[in-house]
Amino acid sequence: MKITSVFTPLLFMVFSFVSKAQNTDALSNQNTEWLVASLLQNKTEETTILGNPTIVPSLYGDAVAFNGIDDALFLKEMPLKGLDSFTVEMIFKPESNGVFEQRILQIGEITGDRMLLEIRVLDNNWYFDGFVASKGVKLALATEELLHPLGKWYHVAFVVTPNSLTTYVNGKQELHKEYVFNPIEQGQTSIGVRMNKVTWFKGAIYKIQISPEVLKPNQFLKL
């Protein structure tokens, strides 16, 4: 009986530790999904709103319009922590009369390790820019040769693996480059602007999704 009384608490501690570890692993394997309108409608203390981003209707449901001047959301969340592979997707509508450089989504540190979804605007068109900084090495996948008209809804995806980066627009691969990626371990998230509050996005965003795996186009969100 004495042996049992000694080992019972130890066994409880072991099972508790294993259970917590399993729960942590399960959480790390889950997608992060942000319906951006819900971030406004169900604001928590983890969310900071800058300016006056507005809920607007879209073909897909409520979206959020950003004015390109001072509208943004900051989230105390870091969904990329520890991931060596992931896919970031976004359904959005870039509008005219915005600045040339527009940072739409930043996850990670302000100027250290980070990932961004960006666009560049030329006249009435835009082109995609997927950017990563990892261990001091920066790489942007962008070319003005791949233009798309403003004022329409698009799906973009940025696929990151331990040795490559790939961008997609509406399910079609645009750019692919080799790159040694190390997981981003800390930071937060900004939507609608770069984290240091420059290069604001003008347009609307319906949804952002981060998957902790390498997705193929047939697995992307449907536009």
TrEMBL record:
Under which name does UniProt file this protein? Laminin G Domain protein
Top-level division of the source organism's lineage: Bacteria
* Keywords assigned by UniProt, alphabetized: Disulfide bond, Signal
Residue span of the signal peptide, if any? Answer: 1-21
Biological process according to GO:
carbohydrate metabolic process
What residues does the LamG-like jellyroll fold domain cover?
Answer: 84-218
- Name the SMART domains for this protein: LamGL
